[in-house]
Specification:
single chain; mainly alpha; Heat Shock Protein 90; 4Fe-4S; 4 iron, 4 sulfur cluster binding; EC 2.7.13.3; ATP binding
């Protein structure tokens, strides 16, 4: 019984191990598919043609990555690849999938990166409000997972957007928050960017002293940065300082600053756009000082560079400056021409600050249409004021709503955690109930098996009792016959012999000879009957013959069904009376099941039953010369399963060998105790 339960446990363990192997195999396949997708993405970066097609193939293959974490990583790589490819449709599509997947997996790091990319996408397409929202979500998520440096960089991006929409106070606050992150980290590169942004903000707020201070702070921190582009950063800061001095109408200092920046001979190579800006700004300050040396050549040089670079905003500024220059020289035609060209381009690219300057200049150049130009100026000013106010309000609302979003997500996360906790408890108790139910079922099965074992033993004992009664009847019958022979036949024969002896009066030789023959014959009969009597009377009954008789009777009865011949080879060393009853009944049932199978399927003519004793074990072999079967094609039937189960109960071994056309051999090896 214990062995049967052990077998069930072993079977469960095997199933569990197979399940683990299946999971392991699935994981390996998922890793292989992930590596294949990554290889496709990497390959797309090395080719010029067919990038999109290769990335779309990688996206299709990513659906077969069953591991959620690897799938999420693959989706992120695809999203960034389509962003780099400037494929807006596929970027938005895959970025949305990535956000949903990261939220489901609670992968905060990847979710934060997805929102960062989304913010950059919106900024690229001038959708600054959407960019701001995405950056804000991303920086809060990065801050949540301890990536403060990235959170600071995103705050700086938000501050620049606020500056661009003229929310200067908001930009100042956001930049200051970024500085608080970068200072403890000694992140000088980003501190430079923060100070530079603050300098621009305070310049626009007309707080020129603070503007110059922060630009000098930015210059001062460059010595802490190991970057081959430090000379470019220095030129940028000098240009910004020059603009502050221009706003202060200190054009002499502005010219000195611009000339210092232009001493960098690498500018035309490293950053020609900045080079054009410095030339234009230098020319404008010279113009303001009525220093017309190198003018208008410097203006045209800057314009030529900007035309070649196709930078509309820079071209607008250049044409504004040229218009002012020619207006100063009283060349109304050229002044008007550049003003109109600048106005049209400014409208097209929405360079509104310079468009206002052009409207004001046109009102002076073209007095007859001055009122129209001034009305356009006023309309644009009012419109920009409304937009700026609306944008500031929107950004304030965005910050509030983003905080609400984070709070809502936290509440949802808390709710999910509660749901998970409650679900875990419910699952635990359900599992506990399942275990208890299973244990009760096992106990019932164990009880039923024990009852079956007791029933088998009772059946066996009844069979033994029945066989004993039969043998007892035989014994009594033999005793009766023995008594009858001894007391009846022998007595009568003895009397006859005596009578013949007493009547032996005739003494002729023939009579004596005949009488002596009768007497000898009678003595022979007497001796034979005595021997029979003694044999019948001997108590040579061996109870061990009863079990063997049961086996013989079983084969005798079964052989009549299909007329097979049988042979039983018993081992005298096996004393069946010493073998426990549960072993004998199970061996009997195994023989019974095997013989029934022979009758059903084997078409055998000869059956051999062979018992052998090997150490303290009984080895039973059942052979037939029937049709046999293919063991690879035929699964075990109920009969074979029952035989195997009985052998397992006896802690034994069961083997079967069969070859089509050559019969079947079953071997049972069980302990004797």
């Amino acid at each position: 019984m214990y062995n049967f339960n052990l077998a069930k446990k072993k079977y469960s363990i095997i199933l569990f191990l197979l399940f683990l192997c299946h999971i392991s195999n699935g994981q390996e396949q998922s890793v292989e598919k992930f590596e294949y997708v990554v290889s496709l993405i990497d390959s797309s970066e090395k080719i010029k043609e067919g990038k999109k097609e290769l990335l779309l193939k990688a996206f299709a293959e990513s659906d077969y990555i069953t591991n959620d974490s690897l799938h999420n990583e693959a989706i992120y790589k695809l999203s960034t690849s389509f962003f780099s490819l400037r494929d807006s449709f596929n970027f938005k599509k895959i970025n949305k999938i990535g956000i949903k997947l990261s939220e489901d997996l609670k992968d905060t790091a990847t979710l934060a990166n997805h929102y960062w990319d989304l913010g950059a996408f919106y900024k690229r397409h001038q959708q600054v409000d959407s960019a701001y929202i995405s950056y804000d979500i991303s920086q809060k998520l990065h801050k949540k997972i301890g990536k403060s440096s990235i959170a600071g960089r995103l705050l700086l991006r938000m501050a620049r957007i606020e500056k661009d929409v003229k929310d200067y106070t908001g930009s100042e606050i956001t930049t200051t928050n970024a500085i608080k992150i970068f200072e403890p980290l000694n992140d000088y590169k980003n501190l430079y960017n923060c100070y530079n942004n603050l300098g621009i903000v305070f310049n626009n707020l007309e707080e020129y002293g603070k503007a110059i201070k922060y630009h000098h702070d930015a210059l001062g921190i460059l010595s802490e940065i190991e970057d081959h582009n430090n000379d470019i950063k220095k030129a940028i800061s000098l240009n910004n300082i020059g603009i502050v001095y221009q706003n202060l109408n200190n054009h002499e200092e502005a010219i000195n600053i611009y000339n210092e920046a232009l001493k960098n001979d690498s500018l035309p190579i490293k950053n020609i756009r900045l080079y054009a800006t410095l030339i234009d700004n230098l020319a404008y300050s010279k113009f303001k000082l009525n220093d017309f040396k190198d003018l208008p050549d410097l203006f045209y040089k800057a314009l030529h560079i900007r035309d070649s670079l196709d930078t509309p905003a820079g071209i607008v500024i250049n044409k504004l400056h040229l218009s002012e220059y020619y207006w100063k020289l009283n060349d109304t035609l050229k002044s008007y021409q550049y003003a109109i060209e600048g106005r049209n381009l400014a409208k097209k690219v929405e360079s509104n600050d310079h468009l206002l300057d052009l409207y004001k200049l046109l009102s002076e150049i073209e007095p007859k249409n001055a009122s129209e130009h001034l009305r356009s100026y006023i309309r644009l000013t009012d419109s920009l004021t409304k937009v700026e106010r609306s944008t500031r309000d929107k950004f304030t609302r965005i910050k509030f709503e983003t905080d609400q979003y984070i709070t809502k997500n936290k509440k949802l996360s808390d709710q999910i955690n509660w749901i998970v906790a409650i679900s875990t408890i419910i699952i635990f108790f359900a599992f506990l109930i399942y275990i208890i139910t299973q244990q009760r079922t096992r106990n019932k099965e164990l009880e039923m098996e024990q009852q079956q074992q007791r029933a088998n033993e009772e059946i066996y004992n009844l069979m033994i009792d029945q066989q004993d009664k039969i043998e007892e009847g035989r014994k009594r019958e033999k005793e009766r016959i023995s008594l009858e022979l001894h007391d009846g036949i022998l007595g009568r024969l003895f009397g006859t012999r005596l009578s013949l002896g007493s009547l032996n009066a005739k003494n002729d030789d023939d009579s004596k000879k005949i009488r002596q023959q009768y007497i000898n014959e009678l003595q022979s009969i007497e001796e034979e009957v005595r021997n029979i009597s003694h044999e019948l009377g001997l108590d040579n009954f061996d109870k061990s013959t009863s079990y063997s008789t049961m086996i013989t009777n079983l084969l005798e009865e079964q052989s009549k069904i299909t007329n097979f011949k049988y042979q039983i080879e018993d081992d005298d060393r096996i004393v069946w009376t010493d073998i426990p009853g549960h072993i004998k009944i199970n061996i009997y049932r195994i023989i019974q099941e095997s013989i029934q199978n022979i009758n059903k399927y084997a078409q055998a003519e000869n059956v051999i039953l062979d018992f052998k004793k090997n150490d303290n074990r009984i080895i039973l072999t059942i052979k037939d010369d029937g049709v046999g079967f293919d063991q690879d094609k035929r699964s075990s039937g109920i009969g074979l399963k029952n035989m195997k189960s009985r052998v397992a109960l006896l802690h034994g071994q069961f083997t079967i060998n069969s070859i089509p056309g050559k019969g079947t051999s079953i071997s049972v090896d069980v302990p004797m105790t």
